[in-house]
Automatic annotation (TrEMBL):
Domain of life: Bacteria
GO cellular component: cytosol
Official protein name in the record: HAD family hydrolase
PANTHER family, alphabetized: BLL8046 PROTEIN, PHOSPHOGLYCOLATE PHOSPHATASE
A GO MF label: phosphoglycolate phosphatase activity
GO biological process: DNA repair
Presence of the UniProt keyword Hydrolase in the record: yes
Hydrolase as UniProt keyword: yes
Keywords: Hydrolase
Amino acid sequence: MIEAVIFDVDGTLVDSVDFHAESWERAFARHGHDIAFAALRAQIGKGGDQLMPVFLDAAELKRVGPAIEKERGAIFHADYIDRVKGFPGCGDLFRALRERGLRIALASSSKAPELKVYKAAAGVDGLTDVETSSDDAEKSKPHPDIFEAALARLEVGPDRVVVVGDTPYDAEAARKAGVASIGVLCGGFAEVDIRAAGAARVYRDPADLLAHIDDWAI
């Protein structure tokens, strides 16, 4: 029987994946790297520490990596963050989980200020018990750091928790933390990839999670 649910945020509760990919695409381009949007989108769900090494060698990473990551953040905040919308059903889902006595944690690769905006967009402000951001993890997903930080704050064993995320990196990080995971498709990743990374079940979006809450929140 589970006691808590840990939610990823980008692509799981809010529709932000394309915006992040566009921000990275523009930031790389400003530093002379023409990287396809699709290639970048496939890496969203990782933090910059894990995303940039996919596209930059060690020398380039050291030379321009920090500047690219800083530029990405500036672009996202200037042009995209105000356009992020929550997926339907997030607030109702969180309220239903709380009515069942389950605790709720957010575990995002985003920075704390972005997380604050996302909570408002998703309609879940005031409905969480624990929140962790990239500030709480040495390495981002698919490393387990962010989920381990959430577990420590929840003070619940990994066998009493389920992770919900939209990417294979969420499922992989959960598996490494010893936590079962559920996938959602609203972030645009393929079900086959999410399952291959370890997700036990896959649903369409938060509204679908709510519709099938008796199947997984037990």
